[in-house]
Design brief:
Blueprint: H1 2-8, H2 11-14, H3 17-37, H4 40-49, H5 52-73, H6 76-103, H7 110-123, H8 135-145, H9 151-188
Helix pairs in contact: 1-7, 6-7, 6-9, 7-8, 8-9
């Protein structure tokens, strides 16, 4: 949704009715998918009409996602908090790539990054490549190419995005492992037992 709103602000897109129609269709499909995930009846209807060979491959995963979404949906505050965190994360990623683009000498407006980066990041979620390798690169080359950016510069931005995402992920995983190991050590460490000195018996006088 963030990328869709940013794309509408690009003059190149507003002048192309076909692009606007495609983006509108994509948003409609996305909204329909989200509504389906929050409704068991609609998902049952999709299962009924979808070919069995396809549903057998993706059905269990979709059901698992729906169970998670319904569980989150029971608490609206958690749903809004996760959505806000996701938006803030996308903004941080776009700003980081924008700074990298300035460092590479690209003369692109900030809105161009908000229109392209979230789409490329979403494409990496497709389960056809390891960590989105190749998918993100080609997506950014295609998207930035429409804005007049060369393939070399687009690939450089993609490599920067890979490094930033994987680097922060490794750093976060390391911190999580260290903190979890420390907490486990604190739980498993036996508590110190203080042994009180027992009073020694007083010597008794010997009697004849």
């Amino acid at each position: 949704m963030l990328a869709w709103g940013a794309v509408l602000l690009l003059p190149q897109v507003r002048e192309e009715p076909a692009v606007l129609a495609t983006l509108t269709l994509a948003v409609v499909v996305f909204c329909a998918g989200m509504i389906t995930l929050f409704n068991r009846g609609l998902l049952d209807l999709v299962e009924r009409f979808m070919p069995r060979i396809i549903w057998d491959r993706i059905g269990p995963t979709v059901r698992h996602i729906q169970d998670s979404m319904l569980l989150i949906g029971q608490n609206s505050s958690i749903l809004f908090q996760t959505a806000a965190i996701s938006v803030l994360r996308q903004i941080a990623i776009c700003l980081s790539v924008f700074c990298a683009g300035v460092g590479f000498g690209l003369d692109l407006p900030l809105i161009a990054y908000f229109a392209t980066i979230p789409i490329a990041v979403a494409i990496t979620a497709l389960p056809v490549a390891i960590n989105g390798l190749g998918l993100q690169d080609n997506a950014l080359i295609l998207l930035f190419g429409t804005l007049g950016v060369t393939a070399a510069h687009a690939l450089s931005l993609s490599i920067f995005l890979h490094a930033m995402r994987n680097g922060t992920g490794l750093l976060g995983g390391l911190l999580f492992a260290l903190m979890r190991g420390r907490d486990r050590y604190m739980v498993q460490r036996p508590a110190a037992v203080t042994v009180l000195d027992e009073p020694k018996p007083e010597p008794t006088a010997l009697t004849d």
